[in-house]
Amino acid sequence: MHTTESKNEHLDDKNSQTSTIPQILITPDRRAQEETAETVLSETKETKPQTEKSKHISCPPQGILNLIITNGVMSLMIWCVMWSVSGSEVLPGGNIFGLLIIFYSALIGGKLLQLIRIPSVPPLPPLLGMLLAGFIVRNVPFISNHVQVHTTWSSILRNTALTIILIRAGLGLDPQALKNLKRVCLRLSMGPCLIEACSAAFFSHFIMKFPWEWGFLLGFVLGAVSPAVVVPSMLLLQENGYGVEKGIPTLLIAASSLDDIVAITGFNTCMSIVFSEGGVISTVLSSVRDVFIGVLVGIILGIFVQYFPSGDQQKLPSKRAFLVLSMCVSAVLGSQRIGLHASGGLCTLMLTFIAGTKWSKEKIGVQKIISNTWNIFQPLLFGLVGSEVSVSALESNTIGICVATMSLALCARILATFVLTSFAGFSFKERIFIALSWMPKATVQAVLGPLALETARVSAPHLESYSRDVMTLAFLAILVTAPNGALFIGLLGPKILTRHYDPTEIKLQLSHLEHH
């Protein structure tokens, strides 16, 4: 009996020990966690119908409806403040009213174009929607009667937009990339632009009956490539690893800024020749004088901005961006006021390039502020350009002749780009891609196209017909090449360029290493 009882007691002790093991494992903290989890689940179950109800019925409104109402009230208050300051200028027919209508119409046009998404097709640039919005505002009878912007206002705004483009071009120049790709970059930035300018002068002389000086002026308007289309597309390819091994995205980003510099310089020189009253020799000498003054002043101001403000000050990017913007806008607008038309742009480029070499990595903060400023002026620029084109003023055969001239000059540019990229280590397919991606036109055409028209209206009304054709060609060049160029880059890039790395695989490898 004693043995059996002891055995039973021993078994009871084992059972008690085994029963206590899970009790030990289930600590009070864990029990508390389970209880809190149960309470959270019960609370979420209780609150789910309430949140679903609040999604359907919310007072005051939330989300997109709240955003629409807020932006609408902000726009109304901007109008009220301007009305209280300027009075009739913000009423229909006034300059501020016209600018506000064009600005908001261009913003809406750009947003609507961004909403158009076609599967396996890259998105279209929003600047195309801005351009079409301005065109619609001008050519709808009821709206066009009340939307009027004085030429002086539009000229100042377009020149300010040109200044911001030049600032971004100067800050975007990478000295190291220029050193590594200096031969190909110089060929790609100067060759296609000059060849297209000469081709456009030749074809416009025989097809559109332009004088030679007007032909070259038109050629430099058409000769610039658009960084607003090329740079974002190339950055997207670079992020996905296409063409990185041979530096194709870096090459095209750097060359696009230099290409614009060549086009703007050539345009200013042709403008001074076309509208000058003296001889050709005196005009060329005055252009050389303007170039020398612009480069010298730009170097001096660039060295000044390198050291002022100093690196120990607070809000350094904001102060540098303010100095750069104020100096460059003053240089561009002031040089035109005193008659040194070619000096302002070169001064801006030299100032920003020299200042950017000293700032190195700190340059990114200044570039962000400048890009935010460009986001304000971009709708105004393309909206105003679209509003300059009137369907009623176009002749029946003008559009066909303009498209023929532009197409022939563009074919010459594509062929020249293909030839100039030879012996640079690129394959046949890569040269085709570079040639086709070097065709989009937008920002520089939007700025330079109306300049000749405004100058002719003021100083030479008998030349207004030529300048209006230049304006029409600039509009058509943006309308045709900007979307097609973006589509060519987005569709052909992944198919033609070799992929150096896959970003998704790199992210998976990094996450795998973090787990280990």
From TrEMBL:
Keywords: Antiport, Cell membrane, Ion transport, Membrane, Sodium, Sodium transport, Transmembrane, Transmembrane helix, Transport. InterPro entries: Cation/H_exchanger_TM, CPA1_transporter. Residues 1-15, 43-55 have a biased composition (Basic and acidic residues). It comes from the Eukaryota. GO terms for cellular component: plasma membrane. GO terms for molecular function: sodium:proton antiporter activity. Coiled coil: none annotated. Residues 116-483 form the Cation/H+ exchanger transmembrane domain. Residues 1-56 are annotated as: Disordered. It is a multi-pass membrane protein. Belongs to the monovalent cation:proton antiporter 1 (CPA1) transporter (TC 2.A.36) family. This is Solute carrier family 9 member B1. It comes from Prolemur simus (Greater bamboo lemur). The gene is SLC9B1.
